[in-house]
Specification:
Number of strands: 28
Helix content: 25-40%
Radius of gyration: 31 Å
Largest sheet: 8 strands, mixed
Oligomer: single chain
Distance between the termini: 44 Å
Number of helices: 15
Shape: elongated
Structural class: alpha/beta
Strand content: 15-25%
Length: 579
Amino acid sequence: MELSETVEKKSKNFIETKVEEDLAAGKNGKRVQTRFPPEPNGYLHIGHAKAIAIDFGIAQQYGGVCNLRMDDTNPQKEDTEYVEAIKKDIEWLGFKWGKLLYASDYFQQLWDLAVALIKEGKAYVDEQTSEQIAAQKGTPTQPGVESPYRNRPVEESLRLFEEMNSGNVEPGKMVLRAKIDMASDNMHFRDPIMYRVLNIPHWRTGNKWNAYPMYDYTHGQCDYWEGVTHSLCTLEFVPHRPLYDLFVDWAKEVAGDDQPLDDNRPRQTEFNKLNLTHILLSKRNLLVLVNEGIVNGWDDPRMPTICGYRRRGYSPEGILSFIGKIGYTTFDALNQMSLFESAVRDDLNKRALRVSAVVDPVKLVITNFPEGEVEVYDAVNNPENEADGTHQIEFSRELWIEREDFMEDAPKKFFRLGPGKEVRLKNSYIIRCPEENCCKKDENGNIVEIYAEYVPETKTGQANSNMKIKGKTIHWVSCNHCIEAEVRNYDRLWLVENPRDEVANYSKANGDLRGIEAMRPFLNPDSLEIKKAYVEKWCATRKPLDYLQFQRIGYYTVDYDSTPDHLVFNRTVTLKDSK
């Protein structure tokens, strides 16, 4: 075996190995078909990106197809806004689905199957309360107790099932349950609920349905009817897998399918969720942050939603690179946010255009540079990609520099501007501050101007430009050739590494607090800093979501709020890990 083949084989994850084994065994006619089945009750978050990557990636890799199927069985929480957002996020990540489907496409088939199962004695209508049903299910170490309605006549269950969909039954009064095994070691086999009454119109089917199918009953049959070969989901569905398979078996029996099911069934395989430090991924918790005004909507750049990361300036390639690095396993782990940010930096370093911006400005006056004179330089757009070309930047007597690049009483190892110190201005000259009178202050003692002289023969590109100095190279923008801009420096929203556990423990210790009151102690009050900055004029030509590097500062993108009259930039990540 060649070395390259060895490396390729070692790099395969366990899901790829299973798919290849199924193909080699001729399962499902040697087809690969997957699906991504989100519920349209909120915006997708970074955890969904991991599922998207494997669902669509496996189909791409093995010449198959991945369908997008909205799990729209819960109409009180769903909206077309979320459907459109989900589609946009998937396309932004670079994937295309085969068919756009909905669980509601199968409502009639699911209903007909349920009727058939009632007739076969495999399902019954239960009139217990939800509390009674939960109590009689038992515990993992104690078998459940059969419902008093478990053996009611088939005709009665059929009549009551029809009544459940009439709109005349109060929600919670009746449910349809599968008749399986109340003593099973698997709690999901203890007569799971298949249908419940909601009496809510569905945004696609209108008033046709008042009783709606449950996820466990819906999911496997939809996969089976669609021809899904590999149903990929996260680890919490491991104990659901036997029920998934049983419902598929029942669907096949009712359909009279004579194909060998072992070779033609969807195969559920579970992988670990994407767990990250310093974020909370539950849609319920994210909705609290939105509704309480802690963040400015689902696409706030502090949110762990895909649209939030997009607005913050993360690239789809950076996100997928990170997902590839952490991989897919059968055990959960908590990944460091710094690893995610590092993958994003690595990607942005290759694609971000370099620009000059000063986010904490102080004026620098080059006292020996002629007043009114302007020099124009060619600035390289991206040293990692020559094809990105260059743009022009102006140099003049008065410049803005970063306040931190000057120190009046500088320590010995401070290699930027100060009395008697020299630095190089990027793409320009070496400058020197005088020993005396090197700055001007206001009445509060704040430095408002810095003075220096340039050394003409040290201009970048000239013969003497390599003159050795101890000082560093600093960036700048010309005062008369720049634009004022708003810079939004985003930081982590959560102060703690594991907010899920911290919030839960705090809630329990304080009388079972809920919502924002349980979250508030762990939220970072400084997660957003808004500053006035100066950027070079060329930045005004950039459009929303362009990838930029503010040289020596960090990676930024143009925000949706930006206009020609008011430029707005979001910090994506700092140049280095400051944590």
